[in-house]
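thread from #wetlab-drylab

HS: before we spend reagent money on co-crystallization trials with pyridoxal-5'-phosphate, can we at least see a predicted complex? here's what I'd submit
DV: go for it
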Amino acid sequence: MKKHNFNAGPSILPREVIEETAKAILDFNGSGLSLMEISHRAKDFKPVVDEAVALFKELLDIPEGYSVLFLGGGASMEFCMVPYNFLEKKAAYLNTGTWAKKAMKEAKGFGEVVEVASSADANYTFIPKNYTVPADADYFHITTNNTIFGTELREDPTVSVPLVGDMSSDIFSRPVDVSKYICIYGGAQKNLAPAGVTFVIVKNDAVGKVSRYIPTMLNYQTHIDGGSMFNTPPVVPIYSALLTLRWIKAQGGVKEMERRAIERANLLYSEIDRNKLFVGTAVEEDRSRMNICFVMAPEYKELEADFLNFATERGMVGIKGHRSVGGFRASCYNALPVESVKALIACMQEFEKQH
Ligand SMILES: *Cc1c(COP(=O)(O)O)cnc(C)c1O
């Protein structure tokens, strides 16, 4: 049976990326050696990093003066590296969910943290608006897509201080005004590559301004200077990331990824709104295109486990909602074909007929 992969992360990748990675694991560039058994400093591997960096810059239209880094540690490591490198006195955070909260918690170890707004009281069903960011903050941290709660901030806010963005789960799904940010980061395993590599876009002249000592590996300058090769980088995930970037470009770039994201999201949200059995959890204007969260309507609450089984039997994978929201979450990342969304909708309609 065909599987439709709605996993939240690690998650779906383009089929050709998986196949090409598998080939390189057996024989990298006809070298007779596996990608896993060559030096990261080998002359063949350096072009991989260089091309991945160049494609990042091209696809996201990154201005001059920024570096693209491939690091270890996941987005969770960036929760600490960001304040380590940028927080001198005060930083502002927008509390839009579990990941934002974790980022904020780390920052508190480095200076004053101002939570400018929070939707915690409403179980993060919306993105707060009309907040004020202190003008003396070193940066304003946002989580552009809240993977767990299914809300998304698709406009890069205009505030008086530079932005830092956790874009783990929506990178390359929309154009970004990178010039507003000093740092954009994310774990690759949602939209880009297998787990194990973290992308960081960092503004070069924003680094080196804090007065504290920063351990070598946690200092962005180390990795800017080292071109992501200060120590051994995760070569296999970086190679897969390069393949995904090539794939995005071949498909038509970020604009095309955005068009597909809108198409998938419109189809699925329309069905959620039409189908009497289901309701969406996020407020309409803040609905994520990447993680579509919905629950059974109150009068059909007892059918939740039945629908999960019903959909699973029909090839849907990973649609169980996160425990903090319940119900269902269909993660519709860049590589998810619209056919998978249509297959899920068919399940929802068939199930509705039975009840
Ligand atoms: C998954 C996720 C993280 C955590 O990523 P790791 O790479 O596992 O540390 C952080 N932020 C967001 C928005 C996520 O979706």
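DV: Residues 253-274 form the longest helix (22 residues).
HS: ok that's useful, forwarding to the group
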